[in-house]
Amino acid sequence: MSEMSATEVYFYHLERRSLEDVLPTLLERSVERGWRAAVQAASEERVEALNTLLWTYSEESFLPHGSARDGSQEAHPVYLTTGEDNPNGAHVRFLVDGATLADTSPYARVVFIFDGRDEAAVARARADWQAAKTKGYAVSYWQQDETGRWQKKA
């Protein structure tokens, strides 16, 4: 991402809706921007569940995606993985289920999505927030309002 500025790090705090409700919309917005996306989960089972979700979440739209088992990883606008690989040249990286990423520099944006009802996930997000701030990243925190819209809180 040499032509882009430093990586932005976003934290999305889930309280009213689930990851399955929120992730497809965030991915759609990324693709609409012309960005490729990678979603990193903590297990192969979760990757498979997200793969199924992205095929079935809406009858009105289609979000092209795939994982290592689909082959041609570089061709997928949205790539699902458990590793830190980036074969599709993603601009934005979504980290779910506590997934971690050692090197954020290849990305314009890294997005941590965490469940606010899970104390361990909240504690992990706080530690990730502090680490990103310490590294000098532009960090922002997003929370849903009563209507489900995302509001920037910090």
Number of domains: 1
* Widest sheet, order of strands: 3-4-2-5-6-1-7-8
How much of the residues is beta strand, in percent? 25-35%
Largest sheet: 8 strands, mixed
- CATH top level is Alpha Beta
Total number of beta strands? 8
In sequence order, what are the helices and strands, one letter per element?
Answer: EHEHEEEEHEE
Overall mean pLDDT: 89
Radius of gyration: 15 Å
Shape: globular
Low-confidence stretches: none
Question: What name does CATH use for the topology?
Answer: Rossmann fold
Which CATH architecture is right?
3-Layer(aba) Sandwich
Termini separation comes to 25 Å
State the CATH superfamily name.
DNA polymerase III subunit chi
| Class by alpha and beta content | alpha/beta
- Please bin the fraction of helical residues: 25-40%
Number of DSSP helices? Answer: 3
Detailed description of the structure:
- With 154 residues, the protein is α/β, with parallel strands linked by helices.
- It has one domain (8-148): Rossmann fold (3-Layer(aba) Sandwich).
- 28% of the residues lie in helices and 26% in strands.
- It contains three helices and eight strands, in the order βαβαββββαββ.
- It has helices at 19-32, 44-56, 119-134, and strands at 8-14, 37-40, 65-67, 78-81, 92-96, 109-115, 138-144, 150-152.
- An eight-stranded mixed β-sheet has the order 3-4-2-5-6-1-7-8, sandwiched between helices.
- β7 and β8 (150-152) form a beta hairpin.
- The radius of gyration is 15 Å and the shape is globular.
- The model has no long low-confidence stretch (mean pLDDT 89).
